[in-house]
Amino acid sequence: KTAELTITILAKKAGERSDRFQIVLEEPTGGAEFNPDFDGGEDCQRLTITLANNVVGGTAITTLMDKIFNLDELRQGTMLWKEQVLEAFYVGGSKEEQDNAGFFEWINHLVWIFWTGLFAILTPPPAYLGGWVCFVVSLGHIAWLTIIIGDLAELFGCVANIDDNITAISFVAMGTSVPDLFASMTAAKQDEYADASIVNVTGSNSVNV
Questions:
Q1: Are 125 and 81 in contact (CB under 8 A)?
Q2: Cβ(160)–Cβ(152) below 8 Å
Q3: Rounded CA separation 163/166 (Å)
Q4: How far apart are CA 110 and CA 104, in angstroms?
Q5: pLDDT at 55
Q6: Which residues contact 18 (CB under 8 A, 6 or more apart)?
Q7: What is the pLDDT of residues 123-170, one digit of tens each?
Q8: 141 neighbors 119 (Cβ within 8 angstroms)
Q9: Model-level pTM greater than 0.70?
């Protein structure tokens, strides 16, 4: 039996460095076994691929920029960023899904379009710098949302004549935990070992405290 793997390779431009990556196969099924004499041994199989850039020309600045930022990642990240913005403004994430969307799906989309569009525009995809840009920006989103929720909770407690401590352990804790509850339930159903659920619950509890 044979199997095919489809890999998208971005075209090289003048001045860019050659790239190298590995294809790793793990956990064979159907009675298949790995050749222990190949790279990876009995546990996995590795294939190292080198993409040589034979395009002549380019400048030293292009080579330096590619060495620091990886121009392929920048182009891929820009493409993915554009796709995630378009998905945010389509019902169901695509034009095909939007054409088949029902009434309640449209209502749900219109209710959350501001937030989904905002975060799709302001949050870069994880393609940049190995995901660190996305991670740092996400922490920034958590920070300013936490500030807004804290101020709103304080104003609500002031209007309702409720102590800040009572507001924090009731309304704020419930408001931050309920979304995490549904997210953990979804992750537990989709993940084989439910690791994401445990991390999500632990993180939610830490934020509440």
A1: yes
A2: no
A3: 5
A4: 10
A5: 65
A6: 50, 51, 52, 53
A7: 999 888 888 899 999 889 888 887 888 888 888 888 888 887 888 777
A8: yes
A9: no
Exposed / middle / buried, residue 174 (Cβ in 10 Å: 0-12, 13-18, 19+): exposed
**Is the Cβ–Cβ distance between 208 and 173 less than 8 Å?**
yes
Please report, for the chain, how many H helices and E strands are present, in that order: 8, 2
Q: Which letter does DSSP use for residue 38 in this model?
A: S
Distance CA 153, CA 146 (A): 10
The whole-angstrom separation of Cα 98 and Cα 92 is 6
Task: Look up residue 137 and give its two tokens.
Answer: 């920006």
User: Please, are residues 31 and 96 in contact by the beta-carbon 8 Å criterion?
Assistant: no
Q: What is the pLDDT of residue 107?
A: 92
- When pLDDT is averaged across residues 5-29 and rounded to a whole number, the result is 79
Measured CA distances, 87 to 80, 83, 84 (Å) = 10, 6, 5
Cα–Cα dist 19/154, whole Å: 53
Long-range contact set of residues 63-66: C-beta below 8 Å, sequence gap at least 24: 63/15, 63/16, 63/17, 66/15, 66/16, 66/17
pLDDT tens per residue, range 28-54:
887 888 888 888 888 888 888 887 777
* pLDDT of 182: 75
d(CA 9, CA 203): 37
What is the per-residue pLDDT for 204?
Answer: 66
